[in-house]
Amino acid sequence: MAFQIVDIYERLDMVAQDGDIEGLYELIAEYPNILEHFDNVSFCETPLHIAAEKGQTHFAMELMNLKPSLALKLNVSGFSPMHLALQNNHIRMVRGFLAMDSSLISIKGRGRITPLHYVAQLAVHVAVKSQQFMAFKVLLGWVRRVNREEILDWKDEDGNTVFHIAASMNQTEVMKLLLNTVNVKAKNLDGKTAMDIVETDKSPIFPKATRLLRSAKERLLFGPSMTLAGYLSREPSTIEGKNKLLGLNNLSKTKQGSRESTDFRNAILVVAVLIVTATYQAGLSPPGGYWEDDSPNDGHTAGQMTMSFNLALFFYILNGVAFFSSLYVIMVLIIGLPMWMVLYGSTAALGMANYASYRYTFPHLDGSFGNIALALVWFAYPVITGTLLLRYFMAFISNKRRRQGVDFPARYFSSVQEL
């Protein structure tokens, strides 16, 4: 029985490849529930995927009419039938899919890319090739607003990005708009960058484009473009190590894994926020409270901690360790999220406010030991805060520039946070 079922699905794949509608109905007559199997599998290669890839439009429309849910399925590579039809330039099939269900244009596949993004990439290339500058500006504005700048680095069948096309057609205005957005060192299938294309053509109309590309080259802070193999052969960066720990890397991400890693990250974030809140509150309301009046004889003033200098120093160090370690965890988890720079600034403000509070309320101790201890404490606090903030910020920027130097779709190296 099992062998018979396997044979039936092999025959179904064959009729899908051939676009044999009569063969499809013969299989349905032989095994009426043959299409129900695909509803029970999360990711699978359905006959509609095969027909979409092979360009069997009539077969695909017939199959979608019989089983509309197949159009919503993603295969094991993360693509829907609509994605495959667009990737293989089967325009009639795309139109047929849209006529039957217009919502298919919004299905999120691998890398959260929808068919609409493929259409946008094609439209960008067409706008540049046809020298429709205003149309290109409109599309570029849309790409930036939906945070999908990687579309501009996608390549056509010749391996050319939109920047290659702009360079080959001497569209300097387009190139100016793209300089700070695209990977100017990306290579096409001939192994040429946009700079190479400009230098190949010695026509006098190209000097302006050449100057633009040379200027871009000088401004790039990362090294030369590298291949995927070159990127993967290097040691993982600090950010990549953190992403691996939390399961945030796209190269190994699954839908289930992504959900679990998000839950894991959220749980850690909640605990860290609770610790920061508790330690910050403890700093504002230390054990014993504060003196309410000045007492020159006892050596204290109003607003200072009632604890002795040694106990206050002990409390301050332990409370500070808990505060800073939790603050560091929060910064690690939020970097790359929307508005993370604002959150970073807020974190710095929180640290400095805590510093100001301790600076005013900490008890004084006469003598060289007290002065030295206080000097070390007041020096260490801003240094630790600055180190925590700058270290991960610089690591994030360095990792981002490192990935920009790879001549490969950047979304496969982005964390869930950055996507």
UniProtKB/TrEMBL annotation:
UniProt-listed PROSITE patterns: ANK_REP_REGION, ANK_REPEAT
Residue span, PGG domain: 262-336
Coiled-coil annotated spans: none
Regions crossing the membrane: 264-283, 313-335, 342-360, 372-393
Top-level taxon of origin: Eukaryota
Key words, A-Z: ANK repeat, Membrane, Transmembrane, Transmembrane helix
ANK repeat locations: 158-180
Identification of the protein by name: PGG domain-containing protein
Organism: Brassica carinata (Ethiopian mustard)
